[in-house]
Automatic annotation (TrEMBL):
One of its GO terms (biological process) is DNA-templated transcription. GO terms for cellular component: DNA-directed RNA polymerase complex. It comes from Zhouia amylolytica AD3. GO terms for molecular function: DNA binding; DNA-directed RNA polymerase activity. It comes from the Bacteria. This is RNA polymerase Rpb6. Keywords: DNA-directed RNA polymerase, Transcription. Residues 1-15 have a biased composition (Polar residues).
């Protein structure tokens, strides 16, 4: 999980060279499909981690004082908002050859 938080993926929009994206598969659509699947995995991992961290602050009473504000919870949420988006992390992993993929049709 720490790899995702320490990613050097851009936080803002960036244009990529299409030739670099489709180089490993020689098919831009296949490359985008692989990146998309990885982005879904990253999103699920980050969501699970965030929910676990926020549950540490969960209160199960109806007291308005406890519900009103929890600064630690807000800081955790802000931290995750500042992370690169899952698709940006997935593209960065793809460009750094950190994603394993195989085409079963070519293997047969």
């Amino acid at each position: 999980m720490s790899d995702l938080r320490n990613s050097n993926a851009p936080v803002s929009t960036e244009t990529y060279n299409r030739d670099k994206i489709d180089q490993p598969t020689e098919n831009v659509y296949e490359a985008i499909s692989i990146i998309s699947k990885r982005a879904g995995q990253i999103n699920a991992e980050l969501k699970k981690e965030l929910i676990e961290k926020l549950e540490e602050f969960a209160t199960y009473t109806d007291s308005l004082d406890e519900i009103f504000e929890n600064k630690e919870q807000i800081e955790v949420s802000k931290f995750y908002e500042k992370l690169p988006k899952p698709h940006a992390i997935a593209v960065q992993e793809w460009l750094e050859d950190k994603i394993y993929f195989r085409n079963t049709e070519k293997e047969q």
